[in-house]
From TrEMBL:
One of its GO terms (cellular component) is plasma membrane. Keywords: Cell membrane, Membrane, Transmembrane, Transmembrane helix. The keyword Cell membrane applies. The chain crosses the membrane at residues 29-47, 90-112, 170-192, 204-229, 258-280, 316-339, 377-403, 415-436. This is Nucleoside permease. It is found in: Cell membrane. Residues 9-81 form the Concentrative nucleoside transporter N-terminal domain. Belongs to the concentrative nucleoside transporter (CNT) (TC 2.A.41) family. It comes from Zymobacter palmae. It is a multi-pass membrane protein. InterPro entries: C_nuclsd_transpt, CNT_C_dom, CNT_N_dom, Gate_dom. Its main location: membrane.
Length: 437
């Protein structure tokens, strides 16, 4: 039954991408099927083999050591304000445990770029992906560089070519950037996801499992979706790559820049979390207040005994919150990726929160969502690990605007299509991961 639902889901997701294609005659089924096969094989290896488990454990172990080093720096600055993880009275504080470590990870990325290791790996891997997918060199580089540099920073590395990109190529670059996450926030995702898996008592499955699987599947999924939604051919004259990665900076100039960049990211995420969570809470209370009082007025109008008003079975209008309404609206999407119908409303609410706010807000909602099955937690976790949300459209348009005003106008015009494509990538990754959970 699970495989039948997955096949149906794949057909729906790929069918939607094809239905909204800008030029169906340009779609090449061969590379799409090849990339889909690679996704399925990699999901199986990562989730069902000892090789995959070893890779995930190694990745998780590396980030655990990095988070430990970051904690030392944070504890030095904030002293007794920072909770000690080894203490029996340890309290998880989002700002200290999740956001501030981004500063240290951002610094390491800067060092790896400065010694030219990252540029070499990104270009070499990009060439390999170009051979498999048939994409241009710039598009293939972007699919690798986006999850390393981040959805806004990646455009800085391509700023020489940005003014000359066609509308089709610009859409591909933006959609790919929205479909991934930044390596600087991966450790933060793992911290939250580990809390979710520990709470659900999922045994050997850790938060790192979902993060690694999502990173890998989103990489190939973004190429699949843009190949269907936005197919085109790059001419030999246009197929070149010009990357700029701060080669003229000294070591200390680079360190200062990336440390400050990491701090900016942490503070921006903190501000967005405060704003979005407060706004969602206001909407929840407002919708509940309006519906409950409307129900009270109807009870009075129909002369219903007011004592029965507290009984939910007598409600004419249901007393529900904005988040619950979103859950019901998005429950079909949850069922599409293989979530059980009994958990679809709860899962749909988390998916909707991610789209209207951001992945961090949704992850915290998942952490406090009560009892969900291990399968549902896994599928929704993979769905959440991407930048596919409304705020990311603004981030990308803003990043491009700082580099080229004209191209930012072009990007803004296909903002909703960007979100649509990136969301399909998340749905595709969640569906394939769910096959092996």
């Amino acid at each position: 039954m699970k495989f039948a639902v997955a096949i149906l889901s794949l057909l729906v997701i790929l069918g939607l991408a094809y239905a909204f294609s800008s030029d169906r005659k340009q779609v090449r089924p061969g590379p799409v099927l090849l990339l889909l096969t690679i996704q399925i094989v990699l999901a199986f290896v990562l989730l069902k083999t000892t090789v995959g488990a070893t890779v995930i454990q190694g990745f998780a172990g590396m980030f655990e050591k990095l988070m430990s080093c970051a904690h030392e720096g944070i504890a030095f600055v904030f002293g007794g304000l920072v909770p000690d993880p080894s203490s029996n009275s340890y309290t998880f504080i989002f700002f200290f445990n999740v956001l501030l470590p981004i500063i240290f990870v951002s610094t390491l990325i800067g060092i790896l770029q400065h010694i030219k290791l990252l540029p070499f790996l990104m270009k070499a891997t990009g060439k390999l992906i170009s051979l498999i997918s048939g994409q241009g060199k710039l598009e293939s580089y972007n699919s690798i560089a986006s999850p390393i540099l981040g959805q806004s920073e990646v455009f800085i590395s391509m700023k020489r070519q940005l003014p000359f990109l066609s509308r089709q190529r610009l859409y591909t670059l933006c959609a790919t950037a929205m479909s991934t996450v930044s390596m600087s926030t991966v450790g933060s995702y793992m911290t939250i996801m580990n809390g979710i898996t520990d709470k659900a008592q999922m045994g050997a499955t850790t938060g790192a499992t979902f993060v690694v699987v999502a990173l890998v599947l989103n990489l190939f999924g973004s190429i699949i979706v843009v190949s269907l939604i936005n197919p085109y051919k790059v001419s030999a004259e246009e197929d070149n790559l010009q990357v700029e990665l701060h080669h003229n900076q000294s070591l200390f100039e680079m360190l200062g820049e990336y440390i400050i960049d990491g701090f900016k990211i942490a503070i921006i995420i903190a501000a967005m979390m405060i704003g979005y969570i407060a706004l969602l809470k206001l909407l929840d209370r407002s919708v509940f207040f309006l519906l409950s009082h409307a129900d009270m007025l109807l009870h009075s109008a129909f002369n219903v005994d007011p004592r029965t008003y507290i009984d939910p079975q007598t409600h004419i209008i249901p007393h529900i919150t904005f988040t619950q309404i979103l859950g019901y609206l998005f429950s079909p999407l949850a069922m599409l990726v293989g979530v059980d119908v009994n958990e679809a409303a709860n899962a749909g609410s988390i998916m909707a929160t991610k789209l209207v706010s951001n992945e961090f807000t949704a992850m915290l909602q998942l952490q406090n969502s009560g009892s969900l099955s291990a399968h549902t937690i896994g599928v929704i976790s993979v769905f959440l690990i991407s930048f596919a949300n409304f705020s990311s459209v603004g981030v990308i348009v803003g990043a491009i605007k700082a580099l080229n005003e004209k191209q930012s106008t072009v990007a803004a015009r296909f903002g909703l299509k960007l979100l649509f494509g990136a969301t399909l990538v998340s749905l595709l990754s969640a569906t394939i991961a769910g096959l092996f959970m």
